[in-house]
Amino acid sequence: MSTLSDMPSSSLDNGQGVIDPDVFFEQNKAPANLAEFEAKLEAFVSYHQAQKNRIVFITSGGTTIPLENNTVRFIDNFSSGTRGASSAEYFLRAGYAVVFMHRQFSLQPFHRHFVPHPHLNFLDYLQVTDNGAKVATAYEQQVKTVMTEYQQAKDTNRLLLLEFVTLPDYLFKLKSGTRILSGLQSQVMYYLAAAVSDFFIPSAKMNDHKIQSRDGGLTLTLDQVPKFLKPLVSVWASQSLIVSFKLETDEQLLVPKARQALESYGHQVVVANMLHTRKHTVTVITKSSEKVVSLSPEELASHVEIESRIIPQLVHIHDAWIDSGSTLA
Ligand code: PAZ
């Protein structure tokens, strides 16, 4: 049987496999495209800083956990990126410049209205004409509506798409992003909707090459991912408004765990949601308030999106944060 569990455990962990966030960055390799990520973000931030625009930094989609350094196999999670992609559109409507840091190939703002679709693929939206090709008549109106907003976001340079794939990729970019955005202080909101793994295999403990099946079954031991919200809130982005998400499958745990997160990390907002009801019910929790936001069956049937209710509330909380450095207004 192959096993990764007999490899040396980190020398700087707490004895239970939980390492300090700083140690994580020493023990894992920065993504190869970090410099490119930073250059794009720096240009975007300096443009919006000059315009005095608010920026929301959205994370969206799931992180992967590679099982080999030359990765053939990895652990993934369910997140499709709907929450992040739809929220980006409502933040744009609210006047924000949006950094959309998403899992590669997960849903993107605007594109999400067309692909993936259960019955249509990209080419089904097109039709051949005498001179070339155009949007098929049946979809012209829908394409026009979505394109108008998309074009406006592009023309005003208010949407920056950035990608991650693995957990280290995500964490290096998030940390770097907070450094680049730090000059905007309270003008920035972090909207951390990505489904980030709680467990991973550090690079030093991973097989370098493809795990072989010749020895039968495979036993994996995963380390706990350090609690990055702590340095994010207290050091990396201490002046900004931080909205984290809490996902549970046991209703009894949801609000207590969301409140525990607020207590432990000291940030401003947790949006709590259940796996199976996340598209129509969430609870927006601050230290002094708890508000259930939900859609009626009629609203759901007429394609109202819950993000259209969540974002205005967060904008309101951000207004107060900018005015008084508090969420209590
Ligand atoms: O990406 P999606 O729309 O399928 O799901 C959104 C979500 C459930 C990942 C998000 O709302 C969320 O709760 N993110 C944090 C997950 C966590 O607790 O790790």
TrEMBL record:
Q: What is an example of a Pfam family matching this protein?
A: DFP
Q: Point out the signal peptide segment.
A: none
What GO CC terms are in its UniProt record? CoA-synthesizing protein complex; cytoplasm; nucleus
What InterPro entries does the record point to? CoaB-like_sf (IPR035929), DNA/pantothenate-metab_flavo_C (IPR007085)
MF terms per GO, please?
phosphopantothenate--cysteine ligase activity
Domain of life of the organism in this record? Eukaryota
Q: Where is the DNA/pantothenate metabolism flavoprotein C-terminal domain?
A: 53-109, 183-296
> Which is a GO BP term held by this UniProt record?
acetyl-CoA biosynthetic process from pantothenate
The record's comment on protein family reads: Belongs to the PPC synthetase family.
**In its UniProt entry, what is this protein called?**
DFP-domain-containing protein
